[in-house]
Write a structure and sequence with these properties.
With 399 residues, the chain is α+β, with helices and mostly antiparallel strands. The protein contains 12 helices and 21 strands.
Length: 399
């Protein structure tokens, strides 16, 4: 790659804006432009997630997720402090209810320790109540440094830095294709085309389509799953201090209902996970036929569905029954019985799936000549955003 004078970032979520900021910081005098198809930044996954800063409990030691998560936490913490943005280390319990879950929890503890998660420890049932007085379980893993933030506010603060360094943010401009030239890349939008020396695509829910339009393989394909959150009524909000999670079950691809404190003091229950009627469908009656046909014609989706019938039944029950949703949370906090709940936010997860129906777990960042494509950035993507940006820019400049 020759001298980089003009860079484009496709996507105005937290990862895209963090990449643009890192490019502006590392490339002296370079012009950086962000293309975002919506009329605001953080409009999709960034603005619809739980706001949790993950500490790095679950990830394979040495893997990209584990490395970038731990580095991402450090960078986020520093950035929030420097911009006076809220960052609350409210702590998290992962609670085991059965002997089988205890065994899996011990394995998570070993991973968390290997990943250098600060302050992590195992608790017995009495010690659980010292951290969360209303919670019950056989044992728990306590991560005191797991935190909550406002990712939309962080994205907008990162964008302020991009603008301050001379960068441009173009809202309402959807990128339709990226064409590699002999040197550099042409970015095509509905309004025209422009040449850049380097392009980084962080297109989230549309990442596979943009990759395909760039000449990359069709898989991994994005299959959208929605997640509904509920908010606990005011009288029940004080029953939980921080975050309470179940032990992941290898029989189910998604985690199940958990309790999450939000930075504004609200307490969320959720999310469930069920196939969405569209990649950007945030209401139950928002149907996008093109998106549905897209996954209905994908053999990987049917392979996934066949293997996960029990999970689909479990998740569907929480979709149709608010009581079932609350009962899931009551396994950990029985005193929530009778609590009022209100519908909260609804997010759509960009789930990358292989042709055989297996879910892509780690971050997938593909490079081709003068283009970098972020094809999969699931949780802890927001936590890791500034570290992902460092990684991408280092790789691009090394290439």
């Amino acid at each position: 790659m020759g001298t980089i004078k003009r860079c484009a970032v496709v996507g105005g979520g937290i990862i895209g804006v963090a990449v643009a900021r890192e490019l502006a910081n590392k490339l002296d005098g370079a012009q950086v432009t962000i293309f975002e198809k919506e009329d605001r930044l953080a409009a999709h996954q960034t603005g619809h997630n739980s706001g949790v800063v993950h500490a790095g409990l679950y990830y394979e030691p040495g893997g990209l997720k584990a490395r970038l998560c731990r580095r991402g936490v450090e960078l986020l913490q520093e950035f929030c402090a420097s911009r006076n943005l809220p960052y609350e280390a409210c702590g998290k319990l992962v609670i085991a209810q059965t002997a089988g879950e205890q065994q899996r929890l011990n394995a998570i503890f070993a991973r968390a320790t290997a990943n250098g998660v600060p302050g992590v420890r195992m608790l017995n049932s009495d010690q659980i109540r010292e951290v969360e007085p209303n919670a019950v379980g056989l044992s728990a893993l306590h991560s005191p440094e797991t935190a909550i933030v406002d990712y939309t506010a962080i994205t907008n603060a990162l964008a302020d830095d991009v603008r301050a360094s001379g960068g441009t943010i173009r809202l309402g401009q959807e990128v339709t294709a990226l064409d590699q030239q002999a040197e550099g890349v042409v970015v095509r939008t509905k309004g025209g085309s422009e040449h850049f020396d380097l392009v980084v695509a962080c297109a989230g829910l549309q990442s596979d389509r943009l990759a395909e339009a760039t000449g990359e393989p069709a898989t991994p394909k994005i299959v959208p799953f929605f997640g509904q959150y509920f908010l606990l009524g005011h009288e029940a909000r004080q029953q939980v201090r921080g975050l309470i999670y179940p032990v992941p079950d290898p029989r189910h691809p998604f985690l199940g209902v958990h309790l999450t404190k939000r930075i504004d003091g609200e307490m969320m229950l959720g999310p469930n996970a069920f196939i969405s009627f569209g990649r950007e469908s945030y209401a139950w009656n928002a149907v996008n036929v093109r998106d549905m046909v897209n996954y209905a014609l994908f053999p990987g989706f049917w392979n996934f569905a066949r293997k996960n019938v029990p999970s689909a039944v479990r998740e569907f029950q929480t979709v149709v029954s608010q009581k079932k949703f609350i009962r899931e949370a009551m396994r950990f906090v029985p005193s929530l019985e009778g609590a009022t709940v209100l519908p909260g936010t609804r997010g759509v997860r960009a789930q990358a799936m292989n042709g055989d129906g297996s879910l892509v777990d780690d971050f997938v960042i593909a490079g081709r000549r003068d283009t970098v494509l972020v094809r999969n950035a699931p949780s802890p993507g927001a936590t890791s955003s500034m570290a992902i940006a460092e990684y991408i820019v280092e790789q691009a400049l090394a290439g």
